[in-house]
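REQUEST FORM: STRUCTURE PREDICTION
Request ID: SP-0412
Submitted by: Lab K.M.
Chain count: 1
Length (residues): 619
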Amino acid sequence: MPDTLPRTDPVTVAGVPVTPLAPGVRPGPPSLVTAGAVLVTIGALYLGRDIFIAFALAILFAFLLAPLTNRLRRWGAPRALAVLFSVGFAAVVVAVVAVVVGNELYLLASNIPDYQYTIREKLAGLRESAGGSGVFERLSQMALLIGREIGMINTEAAGDAVTVTIRQPPPQPLAVLDDFAGPVVGAIASAGLVVVFLFFVLLEREDLRDRLIRLLGVGQVLRSTQALDEAGRRVSRYLLMQLVVNTAYGVPIGVGLWMIGVPNALLWGLLAGVLRFIPYLGPFLAALFPVTLAFAIDPGWTMLAWTAALFLVLEVISNNVLEPMLYGSSTGISSLAIIMAAIFWATLWGPIGLLLSTPLTVCIVVIGRYVPQLEFLGILLGNDPVLAPEQRFYQRLVAGNHEEALEVAEDYLEDATPIAFFQEVVVPALQLTENDHESRALDADLRRLVAERVERVLTELDEDGQLAIQPDDAAGEEGEGEAAPAEVGRVVCLAGRTPLDAVAAGLLARWLTGLGRPADVVIGFDPREGSAGFGAPGAGDAVALCYLHARPQTYARYVARRLRRLAPEARLIVVALNMGEGVDGMDRLPVDGTAFSLAAAVEHVIRRDGANRRPAAVA
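STATUS: Completed
RESULT:
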């Protein structure tokens, strides 16, 4: 009876732990019920945007104030007093900022007439410097001509129509008061609603968390807790890092503009820090006002050039140094998702939606990772790879994209050994190919092309020296790094039936050769013709029959019987790399051992220490 040991599935990929999905939980497209629920939710968010915006802002401020509240509570302050102090502190900060901004805006408005005069003088200078080209004159004449033609068209269309002028009566004092007080009262009411929500969110935080867990399902307490903790951790880290980055951006902007001589530098520095919370569009808006002001107040171009250079340099430093260093993968959403989320939330909630787009999207992605029905949101918006390395490798092979398949292999080999690459990328890709062929999703010609493409990738990697197996590469496998006894003869890696089997035999030969056991690869062996093509194996020789078929018992039994007659003293090993969960019939094969992985096959060869002793397979 052949020696076999049960297989153990790898729990890491290139050293990175992999958490499998729970039994019965598989990713899939959203159902109609889920899609309908999402559409209803979007409609509710739009119709009740006034309330939802206030509540979302309260949640956002709660993330910022929670550390202060917790610190006060650890110092012994009652919960209500700690929350009241935190909210009051935030209100004082907002009030101070509002006073500073209002004062700066008043100074800016009082100087607008001077800026208008400078702009006219600068445009006149541009007109004079253009001189003989007549660009400004031609543009002005074109504008006048277009206006005249439009006026003539309107006159001809009107014909003999009687011109009617509607005169509005002078506004009444109450109407003026309503026009002025309406927006102010609305803003105050919205701010008051945010404060009320913020107070109760901080005060009832644990109760709200319990209710969310109950809403997600009592049976999913662990997953719900993990989802809430991860969402809170990611949002808090994002807001903290965003605050640090924006401060490191706004302070130099304010100081730099003050040194350049741009008026209201404090206002523009503060505005730059605040607007940078808006993804992508914020920095452009922050630079627009100071650049325009520099153009308006300086008769020359020096101030404009210095202002533009200041924003450009700080933006480059912030994007390429500060953000990668501080953010890392804190948000967990892709760049494209950030843009799409900004557009979506701005359409839904206006300018406030831009401010809230990233934190809200972070929460959605986290929920998608823990709620199976919403997993499609995590896939669409997250930045985690959605395909495993072997799936990406297989997809590139099927598509015939050699360059990208080689890139996937090279990327994987940067952090993994060739042995890990063989077992965790190439062999699973071959399994996917064979399984698709068995299910008639892949024809024989395409299966052959996939095998040829794999060999081409392996050949190029060999030529570049990236598949050189070092002795330390096998240190993790028990005994693989030990030298084989001298009585062990040659090794023949025999391809079973298909081109995929030939690739598997080549992988095994590469592995053994890298460990100092040169092996021959035999393709197209015909048992009826005897051992022609590789010579009859003798005592001490090992023959490994490699198969990717899911049920290779019949083929392996026929070949093994023939080989037994030809070489009764040779050691026969069946390497079944795609057996699934069942091993029925493998123990009745006329062979000396079975292996269900490349590592097991290598163990059968390397660990042999005598002709009368048979090693056990390691899967």
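NOTES: Residues 36-130+173-203 form one domain.
Reviewed by: T.R.
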